[in-house]
Amino acid sequence: MYLNxxxxxxxxxxxxxxxxxxxxxxxxxxxxxxxxxxGYSDIGCYGGEIPTPxxxxxxxxxxxxxxxxxxxxxCPTRASLMTGLYQHQTGIGWMSEDPVETPGMKDPKDWGIPxxxxxxxxxxxxxxxxxxxxxxxxxxxxxxxxGMHGMEKWPLQRGFEHFxxxxxxxxxxxRPDGGRGLTLDNTKLPAPEAPYYTTDAFTDYAMRxxxxxxxxxxxxxYLAYNAPHWPLQAKEEDIARFYAMYREKGWDVIRQDRxxxxxxxxxxxxETGFAEWENRSWNELSEKEKDHTAxxxxxxxxxxxxxxxxxxxLIEFLKESGQYDNTLILxxxxxxxxxxxxxxxxxxKQKDINNPAISGHPSYGRAWAQVSNTPFRKYKQxxxxxxxxxxxxxxxxxxxxxxxxxxxxxxxxxxxVMATLLSVSGASYPSRYDGNRIKPLVGENMLPAIRGDKxxxxxxxxxxxxxxxxxxxxxxxxxxxxxxxxxxxxxxxEDRVETNDLAASHPQITKRLSKKWDAWARKYHVMTPFVxx
Length: 533
Hints:
The chain is an alpha/beta fold. It is built from 15 helices and 19 strands.
């Protein structure tokens, strides 16, 4: 079953001939798994101490990328990922719509200009729309966060056949409700009865949609977990696995252990140091502070752990149904680890951890976020490596089996995912869709780089989020940060932790990159005032 034959590339009049020649190829199923607010070094195959054997198995049978980049925040990342464009082109140049809606008033995320509307516009196409046009079934479970006020902005109206999850950017893991509640297809659901856990339910529905498919056509599944985004909510038996370790070791030791594992894995060189540390040492904390913050990290680790065993459930389901070998599986995180509300020990009250009624903080804080991003600088929202770097795993037994347990060190970023999926599916990227002009694709197919046939995908790569900016050319990266408001310059081949600013010693390179970024920003109508909130 699931032969997934394609007739791409050729005209309809040549179907018969192609089916008997090399044009008749097996199209893979595609599974795109996204973690939410997970740091670069949290999973085992990127150096973490959290047991993630199922995600690690994807890495051991696939390819890991060391320099894959997101946009440093959830909704702009999802906009770029889903469309193959810069987020500004899609209408989510700042943030996506919030659940709170005041009748008769415009959402504050809608600035009234095409690049900043708070929802996907109609001059872009989603992966689901493109793949559906090519004969794929399209399913989504998890977090949408690309527009919610008006059903025309929901997943089914953007190419997905089935959807189960949340339209908003965060929710309770234990009892999603209200504006942060659940939706099935185009129907808003009441709050679920206990016991309930989003990570389990999102996986359940993913398998259900595939199981209920009536034919052997290929499918595209976008599984967008809300884990490990705040609020801190996990199963008690999972939390119990981790508390003693974090309480005993503390963040200094955990950070060093991660660094050592990353060196052994070959992710970083032995000479690589650490980015600046913005917190106290573990021994400076009071005993009560150690108790509380170790528990917060244990809950966070349990959220990652639960995501991993659910990935394992999905892998086993694909194997049992005979679909695993020809399924392309991609795994990444939407941004660096989250330091919000940007204090050392986290936000929200300790007593609110695991409260089903909570959909916001508590969170685990800046110190543990920096550990999650070991060894990089900063975290979510910023354009330093800790904000925009993500683990990225590509696993496809039939298509890349000869490359199992290998690394790809070619820099790539979100728009490249769409271009890669076009390549493997045989789908065509349209110039017009439903009567609307579609903006040209930004990304490049990553497969030549993954296979070792290409050393570079982009001459320049650009980032911007809420005034934080970056541009990369070869191994040079210029960064403009909200705290400095000047262009800094780093040589990532020698200093990926961004500790040695070379802007003064290499003014011509700094000027070149800043001018390139300015030209890019003008072309894509990027607004940079950080003061607008």
